[in-house]
């Protein structure tokens, strides 16, 4: 029997929005929308796979409740997360007489949410926006906090805006159709949050990793998913536009984004690259004597084990170092970097040295070879 749905809030200075999570939440979508937005004219945006699996049923559900629904499908994937795709969505919405009273619902993973959110942020200088995330990564991370945007040929997410949704509706049974690599990506983001904010969650995640990595059981891990959401929302509430503490959520992402850029978006998935970035960041943390060598070895072995089933990836260190200079966290030519002060507590530094990056990438390469 499915557990009852749960609810939490993101409380910001002048507004708040609800996050609902449950195994059977899909049947409540229309009633929850009415609580969050007054818009009756809706664009329902999804990628190819989700369009075939879920979009028609959800559209019918909303139409039966009195909504006018424009169903839209785009080719998902990092290669299509760009201004050209955004422009095509503008064209469709404007040709269908959408206005400031309309709304966009993102039905999909993080890429769909980022694109739909950026369209919502910029069309008419802002229209209503709701997240219905279908991947584990999107449910625990990208759907919460208002980061929207697209890629540029020179780097990931270089074009974007902070624009909060009116609601986040998380139906965990969507996770039953995810392939193993997508589940691993979501697991990676939860692990990231645990390592920077909750050592007990980190232990529970490792103990329950098989449940998280199985489509048959992951939808029942609602309480651990909610715990990750609570961590994410706490950082967002403290620092909405990522000027300080929210930057801790970039643990593993600095080198991870560089790896994505060098290997090629789509060739390696975001969460896989973040896991690699975490190995490098943990190594620097140990070199600075923030964590001990036993913890370094433990988490290197654990993360390497998670990555063991992936195809081999090759990258040149010099290419990664060049890509790091295009990271959004470079300020005044100085790269802000996230380390671990201890397991369960992150630390922002701005004095990362070239030698530290070199050594961490050498360590990462050996870890992947030995994994």
What's the topology here?
Layout: E1 6-11, E2 16-22, H1 29-36, E3 41-47, H2 48-64, E4 68-74, H3 83-95, E5 103-108, H4 110-122, E6 128-133, H5 136-142, E7 147-152, E8 155-162, E9 167-171, H6 180-197, H7 199-207, H8 209-212, H9 222-238, H10 253-263, H11 270-287, H12 293-307, H13 317-324, E10 330-331, E11 334-335, E12 337-342, E13 345-349, H14 354-370
Parallel strand pairs: 2-9, 3-4, 3-5, 5-6, 6-9
Antiparallel strand pairs: 1-2, 7-8, 10-11, 12-13
Helix pairs in contact: 3-4, 5-6, 6-7, 6-9, 6-11, 10-11, 10-13, 11-12, 11-14
Describe the structure in your own words.
The protein is 47% helix and 20% strand. By secondary structure, it is α/β, with parallel strands linked by helices. It folds into two domains: 178 residues, Rossmann fold (3-Layer(aba) Sandwich), CATH 3.40.50.1970; 120 residues, Dehydroquinate synthase-like - alpha domain (Dehydroquinate synthase-like, alpha domain, Up-down Bundle). Helix 2 links the parallel strand 3 and strand 4. Helix 6 runs parallel beside helix 11 and helix 10 packs across helix 13. It is globular and about 60 Å long.
């Amino acid at each position: 029997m499915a557990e009852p749905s749960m609810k939490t809030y993101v409380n910001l200075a002048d507004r708040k929005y609800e996050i609902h999570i449950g195994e059977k939440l899909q049947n409540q979508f229309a009633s929850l929308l009415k609580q969050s937005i007054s818009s009756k004219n809706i664009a329902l945006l999804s990628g190819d796979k989700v369009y075939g699996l879920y979009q028609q049923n959800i559209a019918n559900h909303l139409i039966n409740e009195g909504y006018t629904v424009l169903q839209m499908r785009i080719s998902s994937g990092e290669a299509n997360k760009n201004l050209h795709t955004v422009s095509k969505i503008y064209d469709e919405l404007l040709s269908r007489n959408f206005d400031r009273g309309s709304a966009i619902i993102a039905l999909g993973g993080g890429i769909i949410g980022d694109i739909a959110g950026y369209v919502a942020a910029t069309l008419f200088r802002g229209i209503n926006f709701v997240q219905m995330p279908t991947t584990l990564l999107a449910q625990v991370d990208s759907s919460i906090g208002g980061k929207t945007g697209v890629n540029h040929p020179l780097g990931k997410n270089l074009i974007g805006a902070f624009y909060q949704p009116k609601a986040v509706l998380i139906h965990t049974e969507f996770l039953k159709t995810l392939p193993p690599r997508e589940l691993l990506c979501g697991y990676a983001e939860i692990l990231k949050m645990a390592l920077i904010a909750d050592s007990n969650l980190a232990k529970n995640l490792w103990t329950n990793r098989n449940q998280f990595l199985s489509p048959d059981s992951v939808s029942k891990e609602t309480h651990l998913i909610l715990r990750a959401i609570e961590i994410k929302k706490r950082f967002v509430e403290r620092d909405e536009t990522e000027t300080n503490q929210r930057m801790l959520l970039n643990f593993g992402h600095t080198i991870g984004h560089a790896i994505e850029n060098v290997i090629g978006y789509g060739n390696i998935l975001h969460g896989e690259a973040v896991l690699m970035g975490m190995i490098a960041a943990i190594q620097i943390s140990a070199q600075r004597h923030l964590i001990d060598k036993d913890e370094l070895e433990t988490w290197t072995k654990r993360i390497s084990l998670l990555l063991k089933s992936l195809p081999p990836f090759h990258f040149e260190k010099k290419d990664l170092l060049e890509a790091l200079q295009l990271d959004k966290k470079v300020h005044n030519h100085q790269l802000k970097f996230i380390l671990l002060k201890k397991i369960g507590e992150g630390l922002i530094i701005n004095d990362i040295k070239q030698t530290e990056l070199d050594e961490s990438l050498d360590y990462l390469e050996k870890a992947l070879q030995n994994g």
